[in-house]
Amino acid sequence: MTQTRLDHALQAELKILQDEGRTKPPERIITAYHPPENGLGPRYSLEGEKQRFLRMNSNSYLSLSNHPLLIAKADNATHACGVGPGAVRFIDGTFSYHVALEQRIAQFVGKEAAKIFNSAYTSNCGLALTIGGKTTHWIGDQLNHNSIIRGMRIAGVPSGNKGIYAHNDMDDLQKCLDAVGEGITRVVVIFDGIFSMRGDYAPIDKIMEICDRYSEKFADGVITVVDDSHGIGAYGATGRGTPEFCGRIPDIIIGTFGKAFGVNGGFIAGSGTVVEAVRQRADTYIYTNPLSVADCAAATTALEICDSAEGLQRLDNLQQRTSQFREGLEALGFETIPGPHPVVPLLVRNTAKTHAMVKRLFTSGILVVGLTFPVVPKGDETIRFQVNADHTETDIALVLKVLTKAK
After folding, report:
1. Tens of each residue's pLDDT in the chain, 407 residues
2. For FRET with 360, which of 129, 327, 398, 402 sits at 20 to 30 Å CA-CA?
3. In what order do the strands lie in the sheet with 113-117?
4. In the beta sheet, which residues pair with residue 253?
5. Which residues have CB under 8 Å from 182's CB, separation 6+?
6. What secondary structure, in 3-state letters, does the chain show?
7. Apex 72 CA angle, 31 and 287, nearest 5
8. Which domains does the chain have, with CATH numbers?
C-alpha cells in the first residue's frame, strides 16, 4: 500500500532527526490548573504525575490565561455569536468582536490601524506576502524567529535580495544597508523585539537611527518592522514592550495575544494603508477563518486590564520577581544574559549538566526548558526560565534553592 511506503520513508527521516538529536521529547499533558494559594503561585497537574508543578516555562507573562474576567467575557461572546465564525473575513466572517480587538490593539501599540491573525507566525508570513516584491530588499537580525525567516521563504525573497546582520550588531546592519544592490526601491529591516531564547532586546532606537540615514536612498524608504511577541505586555513602563523601553516605535509592529495577554492570535499594526494592503494581499489572512469571538473578547479584555491599576500591579510584580530571580542567579554565581525581560537564560554550557539540572528541577516540581546541541551551538547549552506575574517571592526562592542544590 502507498501509505505503508510513505510510513517507511517518514520513519527513516524521523530516525535521522533522532540520530542528530533534533527530535522533540514526548509532550507532557496538563490535566488541571490550581489557582494561587498560601503564598504560592499557580500549580499544574500533569498526566501520570502525583505532584503539582510550578511552571517556569510559560509565555503567559502577565498570568491572564485563567483570569475570571477573561473567561466570563469569552463565555458571553460565545453565547452571543457562537463558537466559530463560519466563514473567512471577507465572506461575512467578520464580527463586531474582531473589529473591537483590532481597534483596541492599534490604540495600545500607538498605530493607526491593525489586522488580527490566528497567530504571530501567520502575521509574519502575511506581512511578507503584502509588502514584498521583486524590488524589495529584506534585512534581518541573525537570531530572528523562525516565522520571520519562513515568511521570507513563502514570499519567495531571492537570496540576492536579503541581508543578515550579526545579532544586535549595528555596524553590521549598516554594512548590510550599504550592500543593497541597484534597482531596489524598498528596504525592510525586520527584527525581534525580544529574542525568545536569550531574553535580550533589539536596540530599536539605534536601529531606527541608522535606517533614517538611508531612507532617502530608496523610493519607498527603509521600513522598520519589529516582531515584539515576547515584549508587548511584558515590560516597559506601561507594558508597551520593546518600543516603549527603547523610546522609538517602528513603522510596523507584529505581535501576539498568546503570550503576555494569555489568549490566542496575532496581529499586524501600522498605518491605515499598510493594514488595508494586508487585508487585500495577505494569503494567511484572506484564506482562513479568523479567531473565534471568544478569543477576541478575551484578548480585548486583557488589553483593558493591562491599562488598569490591576495591570500595572501585575507588571510591577512581574518586574520585581524578575529582578529577584536575576539577582539570585548572580549571587549563586550562575552565568546569564543581562536584561530587564522575564525570559531569563541560565547558561550551563554543558549538555550533560543541562539535562541533569532540568531533571533535578522536574523532580522538585519545577517545569523548565533545556536547550542543548544542535538546537543551540555546543558550549551554549542553556536552561530558559520564564517569570510570570502570578509567581510569588516564595516561588522564586524555591527555584533558587533547588538550583543551589543542583549546582
Report:
1. 689 999 999 999 999 988 887 888 899 999 999 999 999 999 999 999 999 999 999 999 999 999 999 999 999 999 999 999 999 999 999 999 999 999 999 999 999 999 999 999 999 999 999 999 999 999 999 999 999 988 888 888 888 899 999 999 999 999 999 999 999 999 999 999 999 888 899 999 999 999 999 999 999 999 999 999 999 999 999 999 999 999 999 999 999 999 999 999 999 999 999 999 999 999 999 999 999 999 999 999 999 999 999 999 999 999 999 999 999 999 999 999 998 999 999 999 999 999 999 999 999 999 999 988 877 888 999 999 999 999 999 999 999 999 998 87
2. 327
3. 113-117, 266-270, 252-256, 222-227, 186-192, 136-141, 162-165
4. 226, 269
5. none
6. CHHHHHHHHHHHHHHHHHHCCCCCCCCCCEEEEECCECCECCEEEECCCCCEEEECCCCCCCCCCCCHHHHHHHHHHHHHHCCCCCCCHHHHHCCHHHHHHHHHHHHHHCCCEEEEECCHHHHHHHHHHHHCCCCEEEEEECCCCHHHHHHHHHCCCCHHHEEEECCCCHHHHHHHHHCCCCCCCEEEEEEECECCCCCCECCHHHHHHHHHHHHHHCCCCEEEEEECCCCCCCCCCCCCCHHHHHCCCCCEEEEECCCCCCCCCEEEEECHHHHHHHHHHCHHHHCCCCCCHHHHHHHHHHHHHHCCHHHHHHHHHHHHHHHHHHHHHHHCCCEECCCCCCEEEEECCCHHHHHHHHHHHHHCCEECEEECCCCCCCCCCEEEEECCCCCCHHHHHHHHHHHHHHC
7. 80
8. 28-57+314-406 (3.90.1150.10), 68-306 (3.40.640.10)
**CA nearest neighbour of 226 among 148, 306, 287, 158:** 148
**Catalytic center residues:** 196, 230, 259
Residue type, 292: S
Please state, in angstroms and rounded to a whole number, the distance separating the CA atoms of residues 166 and 399.
34
Contact 300, 101 (CB under 8 A): yes
